[in-house]
Amino acid sequence: MEIILKQDVENLGHKDQIVNVRPGYANNFLIPQGFAIAATESARKVLAENIRQRAHKEDKIVADANAVAERLNATTITLEAKASEKGKIFGSITAGDVADAIIAKGIEIDKRNVKVDPIKEVGSYIATVKIYKDIKAEVPLQVIASGAAVEE
Predict the structure, then answer these.
(1) What's the predicted TM-score (pTM) here?
(2) Where do the domains of the chain lie, and which CATH numbers do they carry?
């Protein structure tokens, strides 16, 4: 069954994309949840008109997303956490903590688009930030123990 996505659905497609899915998935989940509509002839015409009108705006959005990606790639985030002498963190550092640190640097992102495995040890890591459709940035992270003595 062909459907038109009304918003991005992870592992399926992006907004305004026509995708082929099983009828049960479309009728029982995607359409009732408001994630998609059936790809009827009239819906396709409306979609084509909307895409035509948005085409020139898309270029500006992509340019802005690339600029944010460049800023993120050039930024290093340093996070402090209480840790044992062996470098094991009490608790963990999550994607939400990383997102807060990025926002504190003045870069506007959506917290839900930050992906990083929970960090449980002091060290260097990489966080992936999805900015727009297929535009992603990799942000280097430094996790240090809070109150760590600076070696001279």
Answers:
(1) 0.67
(2) 2-65 (3.40.5.10), 70-145 (3.10.430.100)
